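Collaborator request, handled under Task 6.
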Amino acid sequence: MSLKSTIDADIKAAMKAKDKVKLLALRDIKKVILIEESKPGASEELSEADEMRILQKAVKQRRDSSEIFKQQNRADLLSKEEAEIAVIEAYLPEAMSEEELQAIITEIIQQVGAKEPSDMGKVMGAATKKLAGKADGRAISGMVKKLLAS
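Structure tokens returned to the collaborator:
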């Protein structure tokens, strides 16, 4: 079952349960999927990688917003954003552990021959392609910096 079909089914369930937060988050994801599918040159069905990219972008946007709301002491908006993050993260694969991420990035560093922090661009390009949908970009970047600095 595609992500769009799953989201459609879960929207119906959220409507029946009158779960407004879940309904809002799911409708936003469905809107983005429909926009991506209707772009010129796009296929009718999104690939799994595109679906994961959409979900990760939605989570990142909400995390950025929640940081701003936290700084501004807006607990009401912060709790809404955090609830939507929890809803969307349920559709993402389980996050990699730090050890798994370190092992994969170490392997990528050896493959591209990176030896110093100035080689970060080479490693990031390969790492973001290989880890798309599996790890957050910020976590990848942090691990690459850590490994190249040591």
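The cover message to the collaborator said: "The chain has a mean pLDDT of 89. Residues 48-71 form the longest helix (24 residues). Please let us know whether this matches your experimental observations."
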